[in-house]
Prior knowledge:
mainly alpha
Amino acid sequence: MADDFDLCFKAVKNLLNDSGGLTLVKLKSISESLAIKDKKSVIDLAFRDQMLDLLSINSTDSMKVLLKMSVAAAVADICSAATPFLLFADLFNTKPISDAEENFHFMEQTITALKDVSLFGPGRNVLLRMCNDLLRRLSKSQNTVFCGRIQLFLTRLFPLDEKSGLNLMSNFNTQKEISYSKEPDESLFQSLINYKAEPTEGAAKPLSDLKVNAQLYQKFWSLQEFLRTPSLCYTKEGWAGFTECAQCVIDTFCSIKIMNAVDSERRWHSSGTKFTIYLTSEKLLDLQLMDTNFRRYILVQLLIIFQYLTAQVKFKSPTQALDESQSKWVKSRRDEILKLLDGALDSDLAGGTPISPSFAVVNHILERETHWNRWKNEGCPSFIRTLEKSSLPMRKRRTNPLIDRSGNKLFRFGNRELDKLWSLAPDNLEACKDKKRLFRPDLYEHFRDAILELDPKEKVEEQYKSINREEWTWRSLRLLSRRCSFFYTNWNPPGRPIKDYLSVILTEKLHPEVNFFPQSVRRFDLPLPGNTTDT
């Protein structure tokens, strides 16, 4: 058994070594020719062994060919669905960070073919572990864009309600610590000059000096401890420290008026600098406080922690709740921060300055966070809603007006009698050929009244005679053409009215032909041929 496995493994490995002649057809052919039951295990092992060989010689092109072939083999059910993910994991685990971004771009283009649920399921844990390991190796300050690409890649592959990305327990990232001097040197601090621009003049005038001292430095950076672990605020000592630090920071920001709201908004969008990590040097605090964007970052952080402290979180303990006085303090500080963010504290600008776009963005983010928290409190229900049963009564199925119950086609000609006549049979042409429809009325029954009307003794007015009615004359001509030889009478001169023609036929042809009529009819005083005898 071991010998058979080794032979099959070598056969597959030899095919994978030939990167130039490696095709899916050849791989499928050799898979079908394997004489063992567990064929996928042999192919999976051959793929991984070949990948290790290529990694040892750093053959990038051959590795890409092998990875593409593994994805195609997984889709064709030749190898296991998890094999491509394992190969990419081997690639990222053995390559340095400098090559990770290029390889990740190749994986984005290749592995999306395995997004199908049946193929993605077996390898999702491998992919998630691989991306998390890669994120741990990357520097969030130096590889910010690459880290974002990895997160977006996982977002596209994993559903929104994926448990691994929800933080259901509302845990905090307590590992991110900000180191600052616990005993700062007072001589390193400089006073911050506060400027205010006059609305009518371009020059800026100094307003007052803001003292940046060791006490402000300690309170400012110690506030980050509460932002990192908000649960500290629910203790008596923690709440006192948090309110003291937060109030000091808010008062400091309120006393700084560097520029008006329009200039501030312009700098907010034009600045390309983003703070990924804070610098806590004593010499930089005065410059940081002068930066409008930096102050906005801190104020938004305070809004986030205020929202968490007052929100109903499912996994909070019963003791983690604010009393009435604490809630009022949070509400008042929140309103003050919103005014700072909107630039409305400047009395010269408060009347006509509209809400800035950046302030609207902050409000929108906080509102989205509220919806997100409520969704997690409800147990993360699926975003795909089930169809509700309609309470409206079911409408009756509208029948096709051109098809009857048996499926035969009906016709509509605008007249009920025509519709009835046309719809008597499904095939009108065949119905016309039916022998039952080949009926001809009796000559006596048809012409009796007309002959009586022609008798002068009856004194029938001309307008009431049958020969003056077009429909009767039409039927009479058809009947004569089929039943009477007198129809083909030489008519000289031609072109005379049909009325005259029928009068001659009835009086001179049909009436003398006594064979056409019973004995009771032969009573007209019309001229008869001399040789005619009764029968």
